[in-house]
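User: Last request for today: this protein with pyridoxal-5'-phosphate, please.
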Amino acid sequence: MTIADNMAVMVEKASMIRKMFEEGAKLKAIHGAENVFDFSLGNPDVPPPPEFKKVLRELVNDDTLSHGYTPSPGYPHVRQAVAEHLGKEHGIEFAPELVIMTVGAAGALNDILKALINPGEQVLTPSPYFVGYNQYCFVAGASLETTACDAKFHLDLGKIEGDINESTRVFLINSPNNPTGAIYSTEELAGLSDILEKASQKFGRRIYLVSDEPYRKITYDAEVPSVFQAYPHTILVSSYSKELSLAGERIGYLAVHPEAEAAELVAGAAAVANTMYCVNAPSLIQLAIAKLQGVSVDASIYRRRRDKLCAGLSEAGYEFNVPEGAFYLFPKSPIPDDVEFINRLKEELILAVPGVGFGAPGYFRLSYAVPDDTITRSFAGFQRAMEKVKPG
Ligand code: PLP
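Assistant: Here's the final one, the structure of the complex with pyridoxal-5'-phosphate:
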């Protein structure tokens, strides 16, 4: 083997995912893209708010615009703008030094895990969980462990308490959640905070909370409570991939709570990691988002699709928790083998992702970042797939 053994394992996993996408592409080539109902991708299709193009045009027309490297943690005035906005949102005064501009939330997660984790130490996350966490933990040399959520996909505090151990360094949450759409409540976060504080005392080392919130602005009937208000030893990770529909432009940030243990050291280490991975977040888009604080996509589009998809699937006999945020539905597979059911859906030209990839076999994920029409036209196929596995 010419590549690293542990990398070979990751390549094998990536090739399974690639195979899934290749099969989808083949179906589209055979049947026409409009006849394949592709719910597999979390790639936002809602256009960015009109302010984005306006700001971009202004920047491009400015002859003083620089295309050089930026300081590795980001332009000072951009970090200042993000810090001020976060301060307003979370009711906490933020120093710009504790904000690092990153290549999306993915870049922020790579930076913060590299900053906090010694090789072999543990990141504990509730499952189901976003598949990318496997990769970020791999890069950081962390071991990713999971603690099961309750039946509504909310935090099971009793389980969390039992699953934290002396090598847990980071508790990683994602709310609104991909794949479940759950938003953790103020009470849940308060309970989690107590557990993390007690465990930090018991094991004699600080357990940090990393809160991954790229879907914060895509919510329906629930507010996303401030994690910073719940637990001081928190690092917020976010991006503009979903809230401004700029996923391909790769811009995000991390922000360290000013009262977190060793806050400046943690932010400084994350900034050094940022230098290693990407030198700096893209310059032009840093400048753009500084002028777009508080602007976000029209979440009512996702709400309309959520309601449509939930109504159609419920009618066809599927069971699920109604998402409170993000743009994913995570129904129960009508048969225990979710991979087998995904194949049944594929026969109906419906593409979905099996729950096993999210650490939750027996479920499957549908992304409703797709046109309304795709949702409506898919219902007959969902119905037939259900009838095939549960006749009568
Ligand atoms: N975290 C979660 C939960 C996600 O769903 C995603 C992307 O889908 C990411 C992080 C990475 O997002 P970004 O595009 O900002 O890197």
